[in-house]
User: What shape does this take?
Amino acid sequence: MIGDVVFTTPIPRALKRAFPNAGLTYLVEPAAAPVVTGNPHLDEVIVVPRTRGFARLRDDLRLARRLRRARFDVVIDLHGGPRSSWLTWATGARQRIGYDISGRTWQYTRTVHRPRGLLPRHSVVNQWELLGAIAGWPGWAADPARDAVEMAVDPAADRIVVERLKAAGVDERHTIAVIHVSAGNPFRTWPEASFVRLVTGLAARDSSTRIVLSSGPSDQTAADRIASQSRVELGPERGARVLQFGDINLAELRALVGRSALFVGGDTGPLHIAATTSTPIVGIYGPTLAARSAPWRDPRAVTESVQIDGLPCRPCEQRVCAPGDFRCLTRIDAESVLAAAERALGMIEVKR
Assistant: This one.
């Protein structure tokens, strides 16, 4: 998952600080490769093809031979899945560190306990404990003020974003708010009607405001419906403030959010891409807890979390909605999110 990879990005910085002469290599699948490509603390990024069947076996054997020839001293399995644990073992590194997951511990030289429950404990903190298993590690605590998530800006992607904004008539006079409507699964999908209310509320606040709707490929039709309905409710003049960028890649999203005044979205990969910028964020949390997966960044950055507290079914494993109505999301009203967005914009305007 994109967000999981973003959560690992404080680790290379911390490792370079502790071991400045170490060479750092990062293995990543293609979908999340833009997150770590260009990371200044990494010496090498290996993109692992996501194949299936015989091709997967062939590719993994080739990769295993490559990794073993590299003669790594330490390998940390930040994922914990069957493929990553096997590749960790295949490196033959003297220190192979991973979680104490049943059936995989033999592939590591040292394991770290991973709590099985959905505790209100941030994912970065969980990963940080793997660093404590490295021989010679100084033992710093995870601190977002010092080690925030990061993603380098791709100059080519930034140029594309600038051109698209220019083509839409957007320039430095405008306040850009990015609203990401994709979620990936029904457990994280906020109702379309709520998005419409949010979009119309933000678009009506000021003539300089421009709302950019973004989505993944599977949610493009939903984004189209939200944009169309918002324009109808706003009328022709104010409706022109609602823009659609459609499906943009991760590098372009990072560039777009970096040039914006606000990002609003659910607990998905794009939210955590946004966290690599200093742009104010409003996160919408359904079955997940903000304490576990809120943006991991400098506390001075404006971050708002909107969620429903007190539900006995929350958090959940996101396999079956026990009440059946996804109430952890459907009960989050648009007015609460709009108020959080107004606060975030107001705070940044005060700072200016």
Notes: The radius of gyration is 21 Å.
